[in-house]
C-alpha cells in the first residue's frame, strides 16, 4: 500500500505526562537519561533490536529554535494562518500555474531557509550518536539539519529534502542553491523585489506577527506568501538534462527561457515528499529497518500528526520497544504507545514530556556523559 503524506489538522488532546516527575524540566532530563541508558527491555520481540541503542524520530519542533516555521507550535502555521493550504503533489505535477505560485513563494523563502543552521538540539543528537546512545535518526523535516549536524550518524529523511530538486521525467537531482540563481536570472523583476524585501529586513525577523505586519506570511518548508502578488508572472527553468535531450523529452521554452506550457516533460519538483505524494519504497523500508534495529524509540518535536511517522512508533510498540516522546503539546493517538506502564517507572519503560528539546537534550548529554564516566 502506498504511504501518502497527508496533513492532519484535527485538534490534539493535551499530553499525559509519564512518569509524573517528567512534568518539570529537571525531572524530564532525569527521566530521559534513565530512558536512554537503561538495559534493553525484556519485552523486545526482535533479535535485531538488542543493540541497546535508541532510534530518534524528529519533527518540526526540533527546528523551531533554528528560526523555522512549524505547523502546530504556538507560532505554527495551523495556529496563526488557518487558511494556509500547502500545495498538493497532483496539483503541482498537473498545473503550470500552481508551479509558478509554488516556485515564486519558495524563491522568496529560500534565502532565510538557506541561512538557517542546526541548533543545540541537533548538536546534542550528534553527541548522543558519538556516545553510542543513538543508533540512527529518522526525521520528518526537510531542512537537512540532521545530516548537517551529524553526517556520520545515519539519517532517514522520511519526507525528502529541500536542498535539491528532482526532474519528474528523468529523475536527475539538482542543488537548490544553483536553482535560486537561475530563478533570479529568469525573473529580474522578482529578483529586484526580493532584494528590496531582504534590504528592508522583513525576512530577518523570526516573529510571524512582525512579518505579517510587513505584508508577508511565512509557512513551513520555506514558503513565503504575499497576498495579491502576481505569481502568474513567475518563470521557472526546465530540467537541463531533458532540455539537452531535445524534442524527445518533450520540453519547450517560452520567450523568456522558462519552462513553456504545453511541454510534456522536464518539470522540476523539490526533492521533498509533497502532501498527497507517496513516500518512496526505499525510504519507507530504511525507516522500518532503523526502527527494527534499535532497542527503543525517542520522538522529539513531533506531534506524529502524519501517519507515516505515527505508524513507525506503533511498529516500535508492537516490537515491544519502550517509547519516549518529547513534544510541547499533544501527540496524535499517544495512548496507544503508553498503555500498561508499571507504577514506579522512572523513565526506563516510557517517558512523555512536554518540554523544549533545546532545553533538555544538551543537559541529557551531560548526564549520559557522567553515567559513562562512572
Ligand atoms: Zn529531466
Automatic annotation (TrEMBL):
Domain of life: Eukaryota
Entry keyword Disulfide bond: no
Assigned keywords, A-Z: Metal-binding, NAD, Transferase, Zinc
Sequence positions that bind Zn(2+): 167, 170, 239, 242
Keyword Membrane appears in the UniProt entry: no
Boundaries of every Deacetylase sirtuin-type domain copy: 39-374
Single GO term (MF): transferase activity
Pfam families, sorted: SIR2
Active site: 159
Record family assignment: Belongs to the sirtuin family. Class I subfamily.
Name recorded for this polypeptide: DHS-like NAD/FAD-binding domain-containing protein
Source species: Mytilinidion resinicola
